[in-house]
Write a structure and sequence with these properties.
299 residues, D-Maltodextrin-Binding Protein, domain 2, 3 domains, 10 helices, transcription regulation, WH_DNA-bd_sf, Malolactic fermentation system transcription activator, DNA-binding
Length: 299
Amino acid sequence: MNTRDLEYFVKLVEIKNFSQVAAHFSVTQPTITMALKRLEDQFTIQLIQRDQSHGHLTVTLAGEQLYARAQVVIAQLHLAREELGRIRDKKIRLGLPPILGNYYFPKIARALIGQGLMDQIETVESGSDALFQQVRDGQLDIALLGSSGPNTDSELQATQIARTAFAIVVPKDHVLATRETVRFAELEQFAFVMLSAGFSHVRAFDWFAQHNQMHPNVVYRTPDVTMLKNMIKQGVGIGFLTQLAVTPEDDLVTVKIEDPQQPRFVISVVTRKQQVLAPATQQLKDVLLGKNKDDEKND
C-alpha cells in the first residue's frame, strides 16, 4: 500500500473536495482520484460516494472506519520520521520547562559532559503542557517535566523522580512574609501575578481556587519565571510557585499553603512507550533518573 494514498484519503474525508485536496498537496486532481480508486480496489469496498450532479461527497461507513485507522498509521509514520531523523543527526531533543531547567540542568551538567552527551543535546524550553504534547508527537526524544498530578496519557511513560509543594511567594516586606503557613481562602484580597497558560502551576492554582470557591484577582501572566519573580519583588502581586523555583538569591519569602489534600508539583522523566531509545538517549535518561549517581556510590 502506498502510504501517500492514505494521506490523500484522510484529507479528502476532512475537506470533501477533490480539487482542494489536490491543491493542498500540490498535485493534480486525477492523482487524488486514482489514489482513492487504488484504496477502494485494495479493500474491495466503496469508501466515498460521489454525487456528480450536486458535487457532493459522502463518506461511507467503510470510509469512516478506514479514516480512523489511517489517522493512526499516518501519526505513527510521522513519529518514525522524527525519531529516525534525530538518530541520523545524532541529536537528542530534551524538553525542559524553565523552572526545571534552571534547577536541575546545572546539577547534571558535569555528568553530561563526562559522558560526552552535552554536545548531542538540544534543549527546548516551554511550559509542561506544550512539552508533553511535543514528546507525544515525536518532536522531543525525552523531557523532564513538572505536573500537578500523575501522568494519565496511555502513550507516554512518565517516571516520577520528585514531588514538592506549591507555595505562596511574597517580598520580604509583605504582610504575609512573617507567616509560616496560610490558608488559600485568606488570599482573596490580594492581587496575583502568575505563569501563563500551559504551565502545570495554572492547573494547581485553579484547583485551589475552585476548592475554596474563589475568583482570585490575577493582574498579570507571563511565561518568564525570572520576570515573574521580579514583579513579585516589586510588589505588583503575590506569586504561586513550586518551592524549588525560589532560591535564596531571589530574596523572596515562600509561605506554605495549609489546605489539605492539595496537588503537588510532580517531577517526571517522560518518553514515549513505543519508543526505542538510542544508546545516548538512554544514557541521558539514566542521568536524569540519577542512576549514575547511585552507581558511583556503589563503586
